[in-house]
């Protein structure tokens, strides 16, 4: 029934390659089907002015899509002089999602910036960015701990994300672009590894949904995130 031939509850193939850049404190290339995102984490001994002197750390994110990450060339946002609304919304989502898995007291007064650059897009770029972003964050924190700059692990739980939706009247897990563009209901689900929900972005795209269907999609998301967290922990062990 699915264009890809996958089962309703089947993820695309997922791989995460770590330490893919020389200079970043943490980096990975995450591939979720044909969606590929480069994630890097940078540690800085500074925090935004609004928390300076509080003793709290900060995790933030930036997101962007390369010009030929899609079927036709997109104009670089830098040439337009500002980021688009979609970009701003997604990078804020990535930042607050990652912070939900961080003990900011244990992190100390420093900032970690996670950059997510979409190399190739085929649906679910924000979910792949969050999942890969946590891996880059984990690798950066491991360096802090190895150096003795942090004594208590500030990452309290992995964070991962997956899309779910209603396609041809059926609930499906991990939408690729052909499914995403035709889905009657589309949702992004961000969870911690302990099962706690961080955020749910869910909307009707030409069809409405029932409470029972929403519960089914949450169940699918829990399954998908469980698989992603297992992979995150494997590649960062």
Describe, in short, the structure shown.
The protein is an alpha+beta fold and 237 residues long.
Tell me what you see in this structure:
This protein has helices at residues 77-80, 85-99, 104-107, 125-146, 177-182, 211-236, and strands spanning 14-18, 26-32, 35-44, 58-65, 111-120, 159-167, 170-173, 185-192, 197-204. The protein has one domain (14-236): Ribosomal Protein S5, domain 2 (2-Layer Sandwich). The chain is an alpha+beta fold. The protein is globular. The model has no long low-confidence stretch (mean pLDDT 96). It is an enzyme of class 2 (transferase). Phosphate binds at residues 86, 124-126. Its EC number is 2.7.7.56. Residues 10-140, 158-223 form the Exoribonuclease phosphorolytic domain.
